[in-house]
TrEMBL record:
This is Ribosome-binding factor A. Keywords: Cytoplasm, Ribosome biogenesis. It is found in: Cytoplasm. Monomer. Binds 30S ribosomal subunits, but not 50S ribosomal subunits or 70S ribosomes. Its main location: cytoplasm. The keyword Phosphoprotein does not apply. InterPro entries: KH_dom-like_a/b, RbfA, RbfA_dom_sf, Ribosome-bd_factorA_CS. It comes from Desulfitobacterium metallireducens DSM 15288. Belongs to the RbfA family. GO terms for molecular function: ribosomal small subunit binding. The keyword Ligase does not apply.
Length: 125
């Protein structure tokens, strides 16, 4: 039961925090940020918000620093928007899975291109 509740709260937090980042947090250091997932502890006391940032690693670091500085604001806004007895502590974490996926796609594309080139070479002889 607690696991299900943490999962539901995670989805709600993901939606609310995504909307907040888009519409309310006006820090120029925050680039194009996407909330990829939210993990809520079983006791509902802590939430890890995973974000990906479009841009280079410096933009990612700047955005993450700015988001963690705004965590108190985010937490207080969550408290106003969602009826909870205790609003979880929020920590923003960098999610590199999108970059990893893009890297894998690039490698697969290279392998496919090499295979096509090799097939063209063998048919030409």
């Amino acid at each position: 039961m607690a696991k299900h509740r943490a999962s539901r709260l995670g989805e709600t937090l993901k939606e609310e925090i995504s909307q907040m980042i888009r519409e309310e947090i006006k820090d120029p250091r925050i680039g194009f940020v996407t909330v990829t997932s939210v993990e809520v502890a079983a006791d509902l006391g802590h939430a890890k918000v995973f974000v990906s940032v479009l841009g280079d690693s410096q933009q990612g670091k700047d955005s993450l620093t700015a988001l963690n500085r705004a965590a108190g604001f985010v937490r207080s806004e969550i408290g106003k928007r969602i009826r909870l007895r205790h609003v979880p502590e929020i920590v923003f974490k960098y999610d590199s899975s999108i970059e990893y996926g893009a890297h894998i796609a690039e490698l697969l594309h290279e392998v496919h291109t090499e295979k096509v080139d090799n097939e063209d070479d063998s048919h030409g002889e």
